[in-house]
Amino acid sequence: xxxxxxxxxxxxxxxxxxxxxxxxxxxxxxxxxxxxxxxxxxxxxxxxxxxxxxxxxxxxxxxxxxxxxxxxxxxxxxxxxxxxxxxxxxxxxxxxxxxxxxxxxxxxxxxxxxxxxxxxxxxxxxxxxxxxxxxxxxxxxxxxxxxxxxxxxxxxxxxxxxxxxxxxxxxxxxxxxxxxxxxxxxxxxxxxxxxxxxxxxxxxxxxxxxxxxxxxxxxxxxxxxxxxxxxxxxxxxxxxxxxxxxxxxxxxxxxxxxxxxxxxxxxxxxxxxxxxxxxxxxxxxxxxxxxxxxxxxxxxxxxxxxxxxxxxxxxxxxxxxxxxxxxxxxxxxxxxxxxxxxxxxx
Length: 346
Fold this sequence. Notes:
Blueprint: H1 2-6, H2 8-20, H3 38-46, E1 51-53, H4 54-59, H5 66-73, H6 90-101, H7 103-115, H8 120-136, E2 144-148, E3 159-162, E4 165-169, H9 179-183, H10 188-191, H11 199-205, H12 221-238, H13 244-248, H14 252-260, H15 262-271, H16 280-287, H17 304-319, H18 325-330, H19 334-341
Parallel strand pairs: 1-2, 2-4
Antiparallel strand pairs: 3-4
């Protein structure tokens, strides 16, 4: 029953996208805010964050009349959440009813509400970042935000974007020791990243960034690393006071390991002819989520390809100080970026 109900929110989202064509102890997170110019301060004051709490509306719905509940919410939420006529889909209504009635899911929702009764911490982090975002991309609009409870479906992105809305699965930011993660079978290396301090940065690295990356088929390992490095640079630019290890979502120990082994990692990739390797296996084991990077042993952090890509992109920006964020995001020649970056870790 648990596995079945966990996927309901995903089914609902996918179905609706198809239809549209496409006392608590204080949990405050202290994050240093970037220094803004006078003009940016004015921009920040004019940023009005719209956060829709879908999980609250969903779990407070009358299960005896789901159709009326969804019909009443139509227009409040994007079409990929509640599509026109969704209330006539009997199978969907029954699935959602089963989801919000499940005792485990209800407990997850209750825990999420206790931790995120309000999202003031998130707002305090996201507004300065959006201010910097509008500085680099003045023609963009401030996105809307919509929170969800996915039922700890860790195969679903914790944050994702659809048109101009960013969706946040709050139950994926309950802290690494949240009991339901282990009960759901979530690997510890994934649970380690389920921290509220990553929620704001994830909105950029997992959602907004894709609006500024050109379409390009990632063929080589280098393509994958540079692509990932751009996402990290984009996020770091909007959160200049966040430590690099937090942008990468590494622990301090993992980041120190990567820094101290950077030269040997790079030389290994060169010696083994992996930089331009086109196999999916190489890209997966260097870039995808994992408890460690297989080529470098159990003590290494996962995603070392992301780390190397970030280093390459940062090196390029240092050697080309006139390059704007928009410029580097639009570059598609990974080999040229590497060559002109002068990247040679010692």
